[in-house]
């Protein structure tokens, strides 16, 4: 199977079986999504969704968040991974949004990455989810799944994987392909013991084909 054929198979499968994939973070507006994504770094979406309602109730706008201090905000975030850093990131992010962007969450990657706590992955998430921009956020799931299937080859960094993926995925599908790959990695192509037996991508998956060859080789009786 050529790379073009592999991409076609994978995208066709997802379009058919998961047509409405979206983030599992709960939010109502770009401000809430930005807070949730910053908190989600090295933390589960489930834990973030448990934590954010109280934050949004007490700090409903970025202006409210900009007015608070570390000791006030920290108790809301202490159950999240790296709470000290994330508390500072959220407060400083809010200050910058208020002071440099007139209280509006910027909607370009170049502007977003200037905000404290926002890297390229987070900026890609915000712009693709809120504005359907053709930006591919590569987290651990996307990185792993893309390599296993064979959508990326010898991509040593998330940026390298991102560049390969957006080269072959049609522009209009990039924003949803991000969710397809994340959800597939979260529930099917898990890090340990991937659930190949229930995976519809087996015909196109390099990892699965390699496992078949390995098992076949191991089953050949010794004839020496």
From TrEMBL:
Recorded catalytic activity of this chain's protein: 2'-deoxyribonucleotide-(2'-deoxyribose 5'-phosphate)-2'-deoxyribonucleotide-DNA = a 3'-end 2'-deoxyribonucleotide-(2,3-dehydro-2,3-deoxyribose 5'-phosphate)-DNA + a 5'-end 5'-phospho-2'-deoxyribonucleoside-DNA + H(+)
| Cofactors that this protein relies on | [4Fe-4S] cluster
SMART domains per UniProt: ENDO3c, FES
Coiled coil ranges: none
**Cofactor binding description:** Binds 1 [4Fe-4S] cluster.
* Assigned EC number: 4.2.99.18
Residues at which [4Fe-4S] cluster binds? 189, 196, 199, 205
Q: Which InterPro entries match?
A: DNA_glycosylase, Endonuclease-III-like_CS2, Endonuclease3_FeS-loop_motif, Endouclease-III_FeS-bd_BS, HhH-GPD_domain, HhH_base_excis_C, HhH_motif, Nth
Residue ranges of every copy of the HhH-GPD domain listed in the record: 39-187
Q: Which domain of life is it from?
A: Bacteria
Which residue windows are transmembrane per the record? none
What are the record keywords, sorted? Answer: 4Fe-4S, DNA damage, DNA repair, DNA-binding, Endonuclease, Glycosidase, Hydrolase, Iron, Iron-sulfur, Lyase, Metal-binding, Nuclease
The UniProt GO MF terms for this protein read: 4 iron, 4 sulfur cluster binding; class I DNA-(apurinic or apyrimidinic site) endonuclease activity; DNA binding; DNA N-glycosylase activity; metal ion binding
User: Sorted alphabetically, which Pfam families does this protein's record hold?
Assistant: HHH, HhH-GPD
Q: Name one GO biological process term.
A: base-excision repair, AP site formation
Q: What does this protein do?
A: DNA repair enzyme that has both DNA N-glycosylase activity and AP-lyase activity. The DNA N-glycosylase activity releases various damaged pyrimidines from DNA by cleaving the N-glycosidic bond, leaving an AP (apurinic/apyrimidinic) site. The AP-lyase activity cleaves the phosphodiester bond 3' to the AP site by a beta-elimination, leaving a 3'-terminal unsaturated sugar and a product with a terminal 5'-phosphate.
Sequence similarity: Belongs to the Nth/MutY family.
This chain's protein is named: Endonuclease III
Organism expressing this protein natively: Panacibacter microcysteis
């Amino acid at each position: 199977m050529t790379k073009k054929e592999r991409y076609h198979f994978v995208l066709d499968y997802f379009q058919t079986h998961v047509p409405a994939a979206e983030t599992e973070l709960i939010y109502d507006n770009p401000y809430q999504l930005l807070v949730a994504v910053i908190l989600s770094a090295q933390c589960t979406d489930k834990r973030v969704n448990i934590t954010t309602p109280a934050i949004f109730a007490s700090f409903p706008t970025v202006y409210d968040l900009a007015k608070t201090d570390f000791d006030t905000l920290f108790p809301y975030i202490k159950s999240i991974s790296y709470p000290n850093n994330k508390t500072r990131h959220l407060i400083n992010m809010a200050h910058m949004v208020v002071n440099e962007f007139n209280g509006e969450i910027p909607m370009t990657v170049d502007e977003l990455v200037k905000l404290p706590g926002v890297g390229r992955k987070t900026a890609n998430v915000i712009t693709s989810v809120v504005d359907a921009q053709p930006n591919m956020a590569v987290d651990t799931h996307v990185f792993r799944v893309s390599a296993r299937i064979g959508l990326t080859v010898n991509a040593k960094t998330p940026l390298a994987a991102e560049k390969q993926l957006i080269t072959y995925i049609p522009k209009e599908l990039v924003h949803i392909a991000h969710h397809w790959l994340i959800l597939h990695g979260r529930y099917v192509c898990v890090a340990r013991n991937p659930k190949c037996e229930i995976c519809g991508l087996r015909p196109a998956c390099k990892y699965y084909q390699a496992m078949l060859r390995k098992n076949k080789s191991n089953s050949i009786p010794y004839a020496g």
